[in-house]
Amino acid sequence: MTALPDKNEINLDEPPSDTISSVRFCPSASNGRLLMVGSWDCTVRVYDTELNRKRHQFDVGEPVLDCCFSDATHAFCGGLENNIKMCDLNSGKHFAVGTHDDSVRCVHLNLSRNIMTTGSWDKTVKTWDPRSKSVTVLQQPDKVYALTSVKDMLVVGTKERKINIWDLRNTAEPIQKRESSLKYQIRSMAGLTIDECFAVASIEGRVAVEYVETDPESQKKKYAFKCHRAKEGNMEMIYPVNALAVHPVHGTMASGGSDGVVNVWDVAHKKRMSQFRRQQTSITSLDFSKDGKVLAMAVSYLFEREDQPTKPCVDHVVIRSVAESEVRPK
Question: Which residues are registered as beta bridge partners of 108?
C-alpha cells in the first residue's frame, strides 16, 4: 500500500541504508530537536530535525541495536558485537567505553538519576555513571529485551516475559520480580507519568499498563488492551507492537506497530485519542521531542511476513508535527 502525502510529515534527508533500530531526541531543552538515529548499517547519525539536515555521522563498525543521548553533546550506542560506545558531538569522534558478553539490545538514560543503562543478551544490565565513571552489573533472569524507568526505578523486561524492577539508589537486589501480564514475548516498554506505572508491549498486538506498587488497590488498576490489528479479507492480522513513547507534557502514549500505524492513547482514561496515517511498513522506533511538538517515527521492514520477502520501501525516518488535539487528554 502506498501512503498518501501528509502535510504534517517530512522524511529526513540522508537516511540510513539499512534497518533503523532506534530514534532518540536529545533530552536537553536547548537541543531538543536534535535526533539520534541508530541503524543496522553500522552508523549513528544526528539530525537537526528543524532544518532537515544531518549534523553528524559516526561509523561505529557494528550494527547498532539502540542508542540515546546522555546530555546535549554526548551519546551512547550499543550493538550486535557487544560494544558500548560514546559519541562526542563536539569532536565528531566515537570510542568504546565498555562491553557486554553478548549483543547490547538496550541503551537507556534514567533522567531522574542521570545514569546510563545498557541491557544485553548476556543476561545483565550495566549502569554507567558518567560523573563517578563507576560501572555496576545487575544480573537478570534471561536475555534483556527492553528497559525503561519509573522515577528512580529501572524496569527490565527479559525473555520468557520476566520483569525485574531495581531501585537505582540501592542496586544490591531487585526490589521486585514478576511476570508480564501479557502472554507473549515482550517487545517494548515505557515508563508512564501517571502514578508509578509502566507500559509493556508484546509481539501479539497488546499493551499492558502495570503498577509498581504491589498493594491490592494498585494492582486492581492494571489493565491490558488490544491494538495494532487489522482485518485483511476474512482474517484478523495481529502485529507486534515495536515501540512506545510517552508525551513529555501530557503523559499520553504513542504506540507503533508492524502494521505501519502509530496510535496515541489516553492511558489514564483507557481510550485511543488519535491514529496517524499508515506508513508503508513497520514502525520500529518512536520518540517525542523535548517540547512534545514533534514525533520521530522510524520506518523499516522487519521481514516478519513470509508473503513479503523484499522491502516495500527504503528505510527512512518520518518527522511529524503533532497537534495539541492529537496528544492532550480531553
Answer: 117
